[in-house]
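S1.2 Input.
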Amino acid sequence: MSFRVTSPACDGAAAGPTGRPGRAPAASRTRLIENGIGLVESLEVTGPPAEAPRAESYSPDFQVCLPYAGAFVWHVGGDDVVADANQVLFVTGGEGYRVSQPVNGYAEMIVTVRPTLLAEMLGVPEQGLSAHTLFRQRSRPADWRLQRLGIEGLHRTSQESWDELAGEEWLVDFLAASLATPPHQPAASPSTTRLLRRAKEYLAAHLSAPVRLADVARAVGTSPAYLTSVFSRLEGMPLHKYLVRLRLARALVELPHASSLTELALALGFSNHSHFTAAFHRAFGCTPSRFRQSVRREQVEAANRLAGRA
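S1.3 Output.
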C-alpha cells in the first residue's frame, strides 16, 4: 500500500519564507506504521516563531492529524485554524493551504487512509467527503479519550515489533474516535475567531509558565470579562481548563521519558506533584506513574521480542 502524503504542516515547514530571513525551521518526519488500514507518520518542527504564513502547498490526500506538542496556525480556504493538542484536524485532499508558526516548534501525528474507508466510517458517498461537516469545519475538539488513544499509539508505533493486527485495530479505533459527531460549536464572527486564535496562541506559548487572565486579555486586546465569557461560550470550557488540557496532553508524550514526575509536573506548569497527579487521574483514569510504567513495560517487552528474533 503506497500513499502520497503531506499535511497541514509538513510542506510549509520544510520550505518557504518564515518571515525571519535566515532562520527557517527544521522539520523531521518519521514513518511510524504502514498497514492494510493506512499510514501513520510523526512530524516534528523546530525553529523560531514566525507569524507570516509560509508558501502555499496542498495535500493530495484526505488526512486526519493530531497535534501533540506546540501549536501552528493552518490557513486554509478562508479559515485560520489553531492546531494544538486540544484539536484534531481534517484535511481535504487537493485543497491549498499555508502554515504559520506563532510559537517555538510543534509536532503532529499524521494519518492517511483511503477515501473509501473514511467515507464508509462517516456513512457518506466518497464524492461527498469534502462536503462532510468535519472536513468543512477543518477541526474539532480532541477529548480525553482521543488524546490518550492517539499518544498511546504514538508510543507503541515506535516499537518495530508491534503486532500488525493490533496496529490495524488501534488505527481503526483512532479514526472512529476522531470521526465521531463533533459537539455543537456556536458560530463566531471573524473578529471573535481572531480573538480566540490569539488567546490559544498565548496559552500554547506559555504552557509551562504561570498564566494570569489579565495578561491573556492584554495580549489579545480585550477585557478579562469579555475574554472569559466568549472563550467559555465558544470553546465549551474556561481558559484555565483549556490550558490544563494542553499540559496534560504534553504529559502523555513526555511521561515515558521522565525520570522525575515532580520535575515534569513543574516543567509543565503544575504547582506540585500532587496537583499534576490529581489532574492526570481525573482526565485519563490512571496516575502518571501507572501510565509511565505501562508504556515502559511494553517497550521492554517489545525489545525482548526483537532480541528473541535476532
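S1.4 Remarks. Residues 190-294 form a domain with the Arc Repressor Mutant, subunit A fold (CATH 1.10.10.60).
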